[in-house]
Amino acid sequence: MNQQTFAMFKRLWDSIRQYRQRLWLTVFAMLGTALTEVALPKVFGYLMDHGFNRDINVQEALPLWQVPVAIISIFLVRGVCTFTTSYMMSWIATRQLNDLRAKIFAKIMSVPVGFYHSESSGRIINTIMFEAQQIVEMMKVSMTTLFRDSLTVAAQFVYLLWLNWKLTLVTVVLMPLMALLIRRVSKRLRKLNQSQLEVSGELTQVIEETTRAHQVIRVFGGQQYEQKRFDEKNQKLRGYAMRTTVAVASTTPVSQTLAAVAISVVIMLAVHEARTSATTVGDFTAFIVTMLLLLTPLRRLADLNGPLQRGMAACDSVFGLIDAESEQDSGHDLAQRAEGRLEFADVCFTYPGQEQVTLKNIQLVVQPGETVALVGMSGGGKTSLVNLVPRFYAPSSGEILLDGKSLQTISLASLRAQIAMVSQNVVLFDDTVSANIAYGDPQPDDQRIAAAVQAAHLTEVVRDLPEGLQTMIGDNGMRLSGGQRQRLAIARAIYKNAPILILDEATSALDSESERAVQEALETLMQGRSTLVIAHRLSTIERADRIVVLDEGQIVEAGTHHELLAKEGVYANLYRLQFATA
Prior knowledge:
Blueprint: H1 3-16, H2 20-51, H3 66-108, H4 115-118, H5 121-163, H6 165-172, H7 174-212, H8 214-219, H9 223-249, H10 251-275, H11 281-303, H12 305-322, E1 342-349, E2 359-366, E3 371-375, H13 382-387, E4 397-402, E5 405-406, H14 412-416, E6 419-422, H15 433-437, H16 446-455, H17 459-464, H18 482-496, E7 500-504, H19 512-526, E8 530-534, E9 546-551, E10 554-559, H20 561-567, H21 570-580
Parallel strand pairs: 3-8, 3-9, 6-7, 7-8
Antiparallel strand pairs: 1-2, 1-4, 4-5, 9-10
């Protein structure tokens, strides 16, 4: 066992140490099972010497009633011990699985936003659902096999030594040969299982993308393409599974052949000793029965290598995700609600792993209650700029201040409590309308929910729903129309009542009538709040207090709508271009 494997086992052991009382109970049950494996051949040996021997006296003969009592008692004890072992191991395994999944889930909620740019959702789902299960199955099988079968082998081996140490030494020859076989197979299994887990994650990603993009696939006729992607990954996964099966299955016949050779030699020597009166028929029977019973735990120990290597391969992925770096959160909580003054002081930003600068020397102050619209061509840096405010990313240089305090000195929870956001990519949850509006509030306020519904012009929509505010809206609100989903996201922002508001084309999915209604609600909402508005349709931000034009990550113009039109600069060109193509 190399150092990395030992470290993983130690980490897994530390994760179940809290259940050590149940583990000890399980070990005692396994010990009871091991002792019954020795008791059974002992009964058969005694039976052969005292039950079938015609030369002994009637007084020394074995009473018939003792035979069923002994055998039934052994199997009763064995049954209780086996049940206890299975129940306790399942109890520990399910708890450990819950703990692992909880740790992974907690981690994916605390990692930086950039983490999701490098890790696919399919791979994350695969790690939580499949790979964590692999680890727990490995622990369950390996602990049961290692403890129970090792105890059984040890007890049987001691009994064999007590019966006939010379014959027992023949079985010892098996040990180094089997160890060498298992070691050779282990290396190949580890590589195969790691590759298999990678392909399994890719297959999960294909399935996740296909279910999410089912409408696009149908409209653009992508069924054959997606089927081909699925078949390729599925076939590749099957290939790795078959190679793994060959590697695991080949150990069983080889190990059984080695055992058969040893048993054959033992039987030959035992018959020779029996002829020379060195052993009794009972001892010979007990020895052979024990040897045969020894094959089963030895085979299970040999077969343990397969699930062990699968689990160790899964450990790399699971612990890699658990150990991923979390968001830096070293700030302090704000003592009170922020006023909302935002200052960007010479801010530059480059996405991690990229060389191209996204934002260059941004100098911008947003006063409390002021509405600042960010406009410009796609890729100009508008979304990148607003993503710095909730600290989804940190500036590469420069500083962002809230009420004169650097954002880096404010805790993430406290900072984000001051911000409400409505994105053009609406995100809703498979829950009720009410739960989506009051999302994140541990104690929802029905009056505030009702006010948010009215302000977002959702009153008629809610009235027409079968269960009103308690209606389930489906995956990402698929039971609602695009405009209704957008207004529900706006209602969520209205409910939060934060001093800073970020609107990323919040009316993009609305029809003209709904847009006018929601625009009025937004204008009411924006009063007294510092608002950053990303707008592609310039008609929606004509009444903004200030319009900032971004081009290639730099502020090139700033002013009111009329001031910028009079300048005949970038904004005026964008405005004319948009209305010329409208």
